[in-house]
Amino acid sequence: MRHKWVNLILLALVAGELVTGAYGLMSGNARNEIVLQIHSILGYSIVAVLTWKSALALHSLKRPARGRPRNIAIILSVLLLTVLSIGIVWSTGGFWAIEGITGMSLHIYAGAAILPFIAWHAWAYTVRFRVGYSTERRDALRFGSTLAVGTGAWLIAENLIRTIPTAGADRRFTGSHERRSYEGNPFPTTSWLNDKPAQIDPTSWRLSVIETNGTTHQLSLSDIDNPISDLPQREVEATLDCTGGWYSHQFWSGVTVSDLFDHLNINADDQTCIFHSVTGYTRRYAAKDFDKLMLATRVGGEPLWHGHGAPLRLVAPGRRGYDWVKWIDEIRLTESPAWLQPWLPLQ
Question: Which residue among 59, 96, 103, 225 is least enclosed by CB atoms within 10 Å?
């Protein structure tokens, strides 16, 4: 393997890690499990490349420097191996955190921080390639061999994790570990970008439902959480999967969005719905999702705690935790498309 191609392969693998990692971060649907599997395979492939690259970098230090900071290659290799090691320890060692930052979050933050430097370094060593280099079949075979090594390492690791078994055997396809399932409110309380609103008085709280023509409906908590009203009370079993690296299976109680609209005689076909939190946080959904979405007032049969979004939060099965809007005070119907929002919330 030529020195320049080591860097080009590294660049391709890191780019693949970025794409699959970002996609996996946004997906809570098991149908997309293969994307996270590819993410793991690419990670093990990078370890194989870095083993070769580090040997080359160490060998190059024996030669007189020619204006190229070869020691950067070693530093970046160590940093990238650290990021990958955090991911491997998280996968095998179960749930852990340092000063409140979970291993999953640490893996994501560290990877995002060094990514620009990895990309710059790899590109700096490949930008002068001649076309002939990139068309050589043997170099394509080398890249394929690297992926094969990564796949083999991933298969061995996964089998060991589940055969021994290790603390990581319970992790979900997203990499998250189970926390306090079916216990009701005691599961972890976290928020996207650490929203921490003041306690909400349930007696004065109101939910505003605003139609596209401006018509506004006001509902109290007793209007929504009332077993003798004509608004159907339902229970759903759904998994809250937080991007911080934990998941919890719970029974949620409340009303579905479609039932609420029917109760208010709102025709929401071909419209989208914006769920607004008292913090200003919003997420948008298409009409096809309304039957699946629940406005929950209870978890495990008991009223939601404030940290879980009381008095009203969204339950969105198959979505990551940041889509489960907490402390909802407004639902607004709009004719703009559901995709008209950042993939990851910016609030």
Answer: 59
